[in-house]
Amino acid sequence: MQYEFIEPRFPPCSEEAGKSPLCLSPQVQTYSVLNEAECHVLAAVITQAHETGQSWASRTRYAAGAQWNVNQQFRSSKNLPPELAGLSLAFEAMHTRVQEDLSALGLNPRRHSLKLVERQCLVYQKGDHIGDHADDSALVPAKDSGMPQWHVVKPERQIAGILWLTSQASTAERPHEFAGGTFRFNSLVNRESKLPLDIAPKAGAMVIFPANPWFRHEVLPVLAGTRIALACWWQVLPLAEERIEGVS
After folding, report:
1. In what residue span(s) does the Fe2OG dioxygenase domain sit (predicted)?
2. Which long-range contacts (CB under 8 A, 24 or more apart) does 64-71 make?
3. Which of 52, 104, 129, 142 is the most exposed place for a label (fewest CB within 10 A)?
């Protein structure tokens, strides 16, 4: 199936206005990063930490100028410490995978490097979700027309990666499964049906995409079970001039 972008609205004077997305292709790929057994071990560590009170309500920023705070009508997931035992290996695997994918993101691996700027460990249980959003921006009404526009609030977030540790299933009858919780790209729609791109999370799979409004997305409510995911954000940096001398 072929997908196309729904172009985001930026303030006319902003640097983002009229820009093409970092990735020129609206086709989003998933990659296998961990095996099922590795995911089960990590999911058990995270679940135990959550059940022993080590989690906290996820915060969000849903308007430019607003503080990062809890708004469970918009986002009801829980965060856990990314330093939990064993997670460092998973985060390292994510970093390796995204470095291997630079070309697919429209970057030249001989001219660009990635700096990891943020990590999160996320748990979604029955009813949990996060609304439509962009990872680097907030959507606010324009002063003149009132039409919502995207304002960058986290400029260091340029590339996003999500690694799932539990799998979506229709009934979530087995451990390490959940029902619902689809990952939906609302800004990527099927050319014929105009329906958004949905990704069914699978343990060990990772999705990588630019963290801007061209790739706004949401997590639909979990209907049963526990949805566990790791998230990373990277900043794109130019390589030092001396390292790219002679590179055309």
Report:
1. 115-236
2. 64/138, 64/140, 64/151, 64/153, 65/140, 66/138
3. 52
Task: Give 188's contacts (C-beta < 8 A, 6+ positions apart).
Answer: 3, 4, 5, 6, 26, 28, 196, 197, 215
Average of per-residue pLDDT across 116-125: 98
β partners of residue 196: 189
3-state secondary structure 110-164: CCEEEEEEEEEEEEECCCCCEEEEECCEEEEECCCCCCEEEEECCCCCCEEEEEE
Q: Are 201 and 181 in contact (CB under 8 A)?
A: yes
Return d(Cα 228, Cα 230) in angstroms, integer: 7
Amino acid at 10: F
Closest CA to 161 of 88, 210, 219: 210
CA-to-CA distance for 86 and 108, rounded, in angstroms?
31
Q: How far is CA 86 from the centre of its chain?
A: 21
Q: Which of 118, 120, 110 is nearest to 158 (CA)?
A: 118
Q: Residue 174: which residues within 8 A CB-CB, separation 6 or more?
A: none
> How far apart (Å, rounded) are the C-alpha atoms in residues 57 and 177?
22
Quick: pLDDT tens for 146-197. 788 898 989 999 999 999 999 999 999 999 999 999 999 999 999 999 999 9
pLDDT at 21 (0 to 100)? 55
The DSSP 8-state label assigned to residue 218 in this structure reads E
End-to-end Cα separation, the chain, in angstroms: 35
The token pair that represents 50 in the structure block: 């959550």
